[in-house]
Design a protein that fits this description.
It contains 9 helices and 15 strands. The protein is of the alpha+beta class and about 375 residues long. It folds into 2 domains: about 180 residues, no CATH class; about 150 residues, Oxidoreductase, molybdopterin-binding domain (Sulfite Oxidase, Chain A, domain 2). The termini are far apart. The structure holds the ligand Nc1nc2c(c(=O)[nH]1)N[C@H]1C(S)=C(S)[C@@H](COP(=O)(O)O)O[C@H]1N2 and molybdenum atom.
């Protein structure tokens, strides 16, 4: 009564399972990538959807493996491209496993990389290998595979199991004494103690020599009336240069590799600095550039509220954390909090070269 052929009543026809896996993997890759840019709680739904999608994939991939694994044991029935299929299955299990482990365990690192970073790498590989697999194995679902209301219920049930598991996951992790899940809606876990004690992280390769404060100057220019440059003393020594130098606020630095640090930051408000140089009417963006070439750009109105920090948690910023000056961009993800800043420029457009610069800075001069 509960079985349809060799399937249970809960299980959609094979071609629909395959089609759903394809669609969900696509959605997981896209939602995972977009989440790297999501830093405010109004994006919490995206992280939830990514988790529920992943847990639904566990069910779908389980059905698929139950269907195809017996065939793999019979050499005569091994079809074309079976190597790719096996690779894909292995990567998919690893991607789902690391995702679930990340959401259940404490901050785990594997040779320096967080489990979350490993999960991202595996997820991207799954996306790529899946496209390759489709070249051998793609079959469109047929009209007769779609059994109307029944199919709808089967898929609703699958996503329902995913959603329920997601809700229970924290509780289950806690019960099993596994340390519980992430502390923040982004999936990040609290890291470090006070002041400068939190992980020093580069997006890819930045690892400059300590900046010599005697030589260093901050250049502020671009679409401004009066370009100016400032020494460390100008940015730390009271108000004699015409702006407050110990403006402060508490903000969360949330790295996409899966940790965050909640700190009080002090320094110069970007808006105060811009007031000194006078952006021209066509200036719409602010580009913040590191001595390494690493950079990010922000809409002018948003950037005015950012801080160019010289201190963290009451301590002078350490070299690793970007001394003498690092950006504090509340609501933005960690990779946009540029360290070792030596240029702030007002521009007319968003700086698209930033997408290249953050990957290659540190490799090229
Ligand atoms: N110049 C520069 N700034 C950078 C980075 C970098 O690689 N180069 N890494 C970013 C990333 S990915 C994060 S999470 C934060 C980490 O800051 P921290 O090292 O002080 O923890 O700095 C950001 N600022
Ligand atoms: Mo990061």
């Amino acid at each position: 009564m509960w079985a349809v052929g060799d399937r249970t009543a809960f299980e959609p026809p094979p071609r629909l399972v395959d089609g759903a896996i394809l669609v969900l993997v696509g959605l997981e890759v896209v939602s995972g990538l977009v989440s790297l840019l999501a830093g405010t709680p109004d994006w919490a739904w995206l992280f939830a959807a990514h988790a529920i999608g992943g847990l639904s994939l566990v069910v779908l991939v389980g059905w698929k493996l139950r269907r195809v694994l017996p065939g793999l044991r019979r050499p005569s029935s091994r079809p074309d491209g079976v190597g790719v299929s096996v690779l894909l299955a292995t990567l998919a299990i690893a991607a789902l496993g690391t995702g679930i482990a990340w959401a259940t365990l404490d901050l785990v690192r594997i040779s320096g990389f967080t489990l979350l970073t490993v999960h991202m790498g595996l997820g991207l590989l799954v996306g790529g290998v899946l496209v390759w697999h489709l070249r051998h194995r793609f079959r469109l679902p047929r009209r007769r595979d779609v059994e109307g209301r029944r199919t709808m219920l089967q898929f609703a049930g699958t996503v329902g199991v995913g959603a329920l598991t997601w809700r229970l996951q924290d509780a289950l992790g806690g019960l099993a004494g596994l340390g519980g899940g992430p502390d923040r809606f982004t999936g990040s876990e609290r890291a470090g103690g006070a002041g400068n004690e939190f992980p020093v992280t580069s997006w890819v390769a930045d690892d400059p020599e300590p900046v010599d404060p005697a030589e260093w100057r901050l250049a502020v220019g671009g679409a401004v009336r009066e370009p100016a440059s400032f020494a460390v003393a100008d940015l730390t020594g009271g108000e004699r240069v015409g702006f407050e130098t110990d403006a402060g606020e508490t903000a969360v630095l949330d790295c996409t590799s899966g940790w965050y640090a909640d700190r009080h930051w002090q320094g110069v408000r970007v808006g105060d600095l811009l007031e000194r140089v006078g952006p021209t009417a066509d200036g719409r963006w602010v580009r913040v550039v590191s001595v390494t070439g690493y950079r990010w750009s922000f809409p002018l109105a948003e950037a005015r509220d950012f801080l160019l920090a010289t201190r963290v948690g009451g301590e002078p910023l350490s070299h690793g954390h970007g001394a003498p000056l690092r950006l504090v961009a509340p609501g933005r993800r960690g990779f946009q909090w540029v360290k070792w800043i030596d240029r702030v420029e007002v521009t007319r457009h968003r700086d698209l070269s930033q997408w290249l610069a953050i990957f290659v800075s540190g490799f090229v001069e």
